[in-house]
Structures are given as C-alpha cells and as structure tokens.
Write a structure and sequence with these properties.
The protein has about 425 residues and is mostly helical. The chain contains 20 helices and no strands.
C-alpha cells in the first residue's frame, strides 16, 4: 500500500530589506524628477511653484550624486568604465588582506586574547550552566545544540576524521613510553605491588608445566641414549626433572625470599632503571610503540574510538536533556556546584582556559588570518559585491534618501536667499 505524499507548501522568498530600500530611494529620485519637470512647466502660474522647483531640482542633483557614489562602490554606473568606480570588486584582494590584518591585530594576538579573557570567569559560567542547565534560555540552548549538530554533520567526515585520528596518532607517538613504564615498575616494586604479579607468573609456569608434561617426557625420551631407554632410566630421569621443577615452583610461590624470585626482582629493577635512563632501551620501546600504532588493528581501534566519540557528541547535542540525565547528569551537576563554590578551582580552570586560548591564538592565529585572506581572494568579484551589498545595502540606500532630502533642503534655502536678495 502506497501512502499519498502531499506536496510541501512552497514558501515565498522574503525580499531583502536592502532591495525595498533601493526601490524606495530610486522612487524618490524619479519623483523628484517628475516634480521638477511639472514645476518647471507650471512655474509661471504662481511664485510659490518656484520654491517647489528649486527643492526638486536640488533634491534630484543630490540624489543623483549619492546614487553615483553608492553605485561606484560596487559596480560601474550604467555599465560605463568610469575611472575610480567598481571600487570593491577591483580591490577585493586588498580588502581581504586588510580584513585579515584587522582580525589579527585586534583579536588574534596573544596579548589581545589574554587582555580580553583576563576578566572572563569561564569556570563560574560553566558551573552555573552545569548546576542548573534548565534555568537558561531553552530556545538558546536548543538553537546552539542544533547549530553544533549541523556543523558536525556538515564537516567533511573523511577530512575531519583523518585530522582527529592523525592527531591521536601523533600524540601517541610523541609519548616517551620508556620512562613512564620504568617509573610505573619502580613504584610498583617500591610499594610491594609487584608481588601478585610474580605469584601469577609462578602459578602460570606451574600450570604450563602440568599441561605440557607429556611434551617434556617425550623430549627427554628422544634425547636419552639407547641404554637409558633399554633400562627404563629415561622415565626415572623425566620424573626427577618434573618433580624438581614442581618443587622449585612451589618453593618460589611460598617463599618471597627465594633466590630465583630475588633474581627475577633484580632483573625487574634493572629493567625499570634502563627504561628510565638507557637511551638504547628507550629507542627500542619507541620502535615497539610506533609498530603498535601503525598496526592495522590499532588503526581500526582509533577509527572506532573517533566514530564512537562523534556519535556520542551528536547524541548529546541533539538531546541535551537526556545527556544531563542519569549518573552522568548528577556528576555534571555536582561539578557545577563545586565550580561555583570553590574559588581556587575556578582560578585554576580560568587560568588554564586563558592559557589555552592564548596558546591557540599564538599557534593558529596566523593560519586563521591566512584562511580569511585566502577565502576572500578565492571569491569572484560578483560574490564579494553581493555579500557586502547584502550586509550594508540598507544603510547605503539611506545615504541616497538622505542625499535627496538634504539636497532639496539646500536648494530650497538657496532659492529663498536668492528671492530675498
């Protein structure tokens, strides 16, 4: 059964305010021209019509002058290649460079970022939101959630995922694993936490010996001479070896001071020292680390980690109420209360945020500036013109309207002065 799908109602495009203002300003100019023609034709009927003619004439001149000035910013008036017109399309590269320099000098320098963030209490704001997320503007929160979700879905997943996974790989490769492992082993031995590991190794060796007893007997029988096999001494030799190994493992499990156990601990201590201070050992660990990171299984794990993180973030931003529910929500609300109460914690977090922002400005400020400059350079003249005109077109049309009115008033004042004199 096929359901009938009704067509969506079409929404008419909303005209941009600048277009209406442009029509109004042009209408005023045409009206002044019509009034001027009518007043000039009927000036002999009454002296007062001369004032109307003077107003309309001056208003027409002022409107034309401002129309030319406004139009010359974006294009050639009437399509004529008049010098010093179409200023913005001809100088779009310089505009992009100037905008990028303005952004860099006023927003993206470390000193400016540090000064602007010095009085921002980011930790307190985050604490208030986490403590009572429903107290804020729901529409603002939902709008921000939708915006973040749309941005995450709109970004190129291959490129973004590659950047994230590449960053994870670089971070893993940048970690000097040798000293960390050595310090962990040293701390475990100092606190006696290595003893359960040694016990587990001894028990594993005992189970392995028991599970492979037939292989040991077979190996002894194969290596024994014909005389030993003829007399049956090979079986006695195998029993003696196995019993000796079992007794040694049992003694090691019961006696923490067993010589072999102490020897193993000595080797473990030497390994911990070499991991921390031996460059050759650290290089071997680094090579092993890189091999693990480059392993396809590890890469698949990183891929899955990124996909899970992205999916979880999308779920959280699409349903912030659900994200704040349960134990996670309780923990976040408790954290929000702590942030509001602990001034020392807020100070530490604000200092960290400020340093992170300053570091980001120092590291990526030039890249952001180049992005702005290159983006504007990549636009064609029509795109630059339409976007700037869309942004400031309404105010520019007010210039034309004001020019028409001011011109008319000046013309009226001049005609009155001329009449009086």
């Amino acid at each position: 059964m096929t359901l009938l799908r009704l067509p969506r109602p079409r929404t008419l495009p909303t005209p941009h305010p600048a277009r209406g203002m442009r029509l109004f300003a042009t209408g005023m100019l045409v009206a002044m021209a019509a009034i001027f023609i009518g007043a000039r034709a009927t000036a002999h009927l009454h002296p007062a019509i001369g004032f109307v003619q003077a107003f309309a004439e001056a208003a027409m001149v002022g409107g034309l002058a401002d129309w030319f000035a406004v139009t010359a910013l974006f294009r050639h008036p009437l399509g004529l290649p008049i010098p010093h017109t179409a200023i913005i399309p001809r100088n779009k590269d310089r505009i992009g460079d100037t905008l990028a320099a303005f952004l860099r000098d006023n927003f993206l320098t470390p000193a400016v970022v540090a000064r602007r963030m010095r009085h921002m209490d980011v930790a307190a704001a985050a604490g208030r939101f986490l403590a009572s997320p429903s107290a804020g503007d729901g529409r603002l929160r939902e709008g921000a959630s939708r915006l973040i979700a749309d941005i995450l879905e709109a970004l190129d997943q291959e490129r973004l995922g590659g950047m994230v996974k590449g960053a994870i790989g670089q971070r893993l490769r940048a970690i000097n694993m040798g000293p960390l492992i050595g310090q962990a082993i040293e701390a475990a031995m100092r606190d006696g936490r290595h003893a359960p590991v040694m016990d587990a190794i001894v028990h594993w060796a005992d189970r392995t010996l028991e599970g492979n007893e037939h292989l040991i007997r077979q190996m002894i029988q194969e290596r024994a001479g014909k005389v030993l096999r003829w007399t049956g001494l090979d079986e006695n030799l195998a029993n003696a070896i196995l019993n000796g190994l079992r007794k040694m493992l049992a003694d090691m499990a019961q006696d923490p001071g067993h010589p072999l156990r102490l020897k193993a601990e000595e080797g473990m201590a030497k390994l911990a020292f070499d991991l921390q201070f031996d460059l050759e050992m650290q290089a071997k660990v680094a090579k092993l680390r890189d091999e693990i990171v480059d392993n396809p299984a590890m890469q698949r794990w990183i891929d899955g980690l990124w996909e899970q993180a992205r999916a979880g973030l999308l779920r959280a931003v699409r349903d912030p109420g659900k994200a704040m529910a349960g134990r996670l929500g309780e923990a976040l609300r408790a954290l929000g209360g702590t942030l509001q109460q602990e001034a020392g914690l807020r100070l530490v977090i604000n200092r960290f945020v400020r340093r992170a922002a300053v570091g980001a400005a120092a590291s990526y400020g030039d890249a952001i500036v180049r992005l702005v400059s290159d983006t504007v350079r990549g636009w064609d003249a029509g795109t630059v013109t339409s976007r700037l005109e869309h942004a400031v077109g309404r105010d520019l049309q007010y210039i034309r309207i004001n020019g028409t009115l001011v011109g008319g008033l000046v013309g009226l004042a001049i005609h009155m002065i001329d009449t009086l004199l």
